[in-house]
Amino acid sequence: MPIRVRLDERMKAKGMSLTELSEKVGLTLANLSILKTGKAKAVRFSTLEAICEVLECQPGDILVFDEK
Amino acid sequence: MKARSRSLAALKFIAGFCWWGGLVSCGGLVVLVVLEFSGVDTFVERSVQGYASSFDTSAFSVESKDGFVGELELEEPVIVRVKFGREYWDERPAEFPIFVFLTLGFMGIFLAPVWHFRKLLESVERGEAFAAANAKRLRTLGSWILVGVFWDLLMELIVSGIADSALRPQGFTLNGHLSLNGGLLVAGLCVFALSEVFRLGAKMREEQELTI
């Protein structure tokens, strides 16, 4: 899929674990894992907003278009 | 919500009735076949069935209770069954296996879609209607219905062919008969269309589930 989720890098930069992020964002660990592994088909604006708020970043920092 | 579950229960009951009824009939048929092959005289009446037309209706008459004479017309082709004694069939040992094959085939073609229909209803009851497996089930169901349509056609062809070659009718003619069961054909195609709807539904459900 050309859209890649770069959640790993942002989490590492903030020193946050997946469990911690799931608690702060209000998503289940399973759903966050789907998002992190790139299995998600779509992301809601509200989810993106919550993640950006917790990780203090822009949507473009998390989602990138990968042509390869 | 309650009405929907009632209709589902009714559908399950009908499907279950068809399934178990069909199985019992199949079992009964197998027992009869075994008895017939072992020479036991069963109560099954063997007959040659054919499709008749051009009836000589001059021997028939009909009149109203107050004496008005009516003209008789038959809607042709008329199904005629000619019954023969045991000796007739003993001289034609090849015809009974054909009958058994056609009837068991018909039962199988009837039972296969019923089985798929039951599985479909079970998954709907579990709340998993839009699943890829159900789309496949509906495709299989549609295929079986279409096989049934053509099996029916084959049966008509064989039955009318046997009657045509084996009997010498007086006062009417026997002829080959082929008629496509239009209703069943449309039903089969509708089930195919429904399978596409289910396939799309399953895809949408998957997307919905994977929307974070």
Automatic annotation (TrEMBL), chain A:
Domain HTH cro/C1-type: 7-62
Transmembrane segments: none
InterPro entries assigned: Cro/C1-type_HTH, Lambda_DNA-bd_dom_sf
Gene Ontology molecular function, alphabetical: DNA binding
Superkingdom field: Bacteria
Full protein name: Helix-turn-helix transcriptional regulator
Organism: Pelagicoccus mobilis
Automatic annotation (TrEMBL), chain B:
Membrane-spanning segments: 12-35, 96-117, 138-163, 183-202
Pfam families associated with the record: DUF2975 (PF11188)
Nucleotidyltransferase found in the keyword field: no
Keyword tags: Membrane, Transmembrane, Transmembrane helix
InterPro entries: DUF2975
This protein's record includes keyword Nucleotide-binding: no
PROSITE patterns per record: PROKAR_LIPOPROTEIN (PS51257)
Protein name, UniProt field: DUF2975 domain-containing protein
